[in-house]
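Kindly inspect this today.
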Amino acid sequence: MSPEELLYTKEHEWIRVDGGVGIIGITDHAQRELGDVVYVELPKVGDRFEAGQTFGSVESVKAVSELFLPVSGEIIDINEELGSAPEALNEDPYGGGWLVRIRIRDLGETAELMSNDKYDAFVSAEE
């Protein structure tokens, strides 16, 4: 079961919205599909992106997967810990394995995202 306070994308990213700021990561389903994460490429603070745009990548022993931003905005923080400990994505995808913090440009874009129930049903249908 996915945490209910988060919103989800079909690309298996999550976002926790707090006011005008979002914390973004990959879902537990995504990290299980990837396998052991060995490298994470993240953007720079100050970079701006549109919703759905690629903002980085995750490399695992199985594959390299692009990361897609759930909403438009400006990167205000990145998880520096992932540089030396990318395995945090596998160990704690909803906590210590967060990727970036973003200043959300348009909160209305969150209406396009899935609730945890819809995301869990989406994952079940994919399998």
Remarks:
- The radius of gyration is 13 Å.
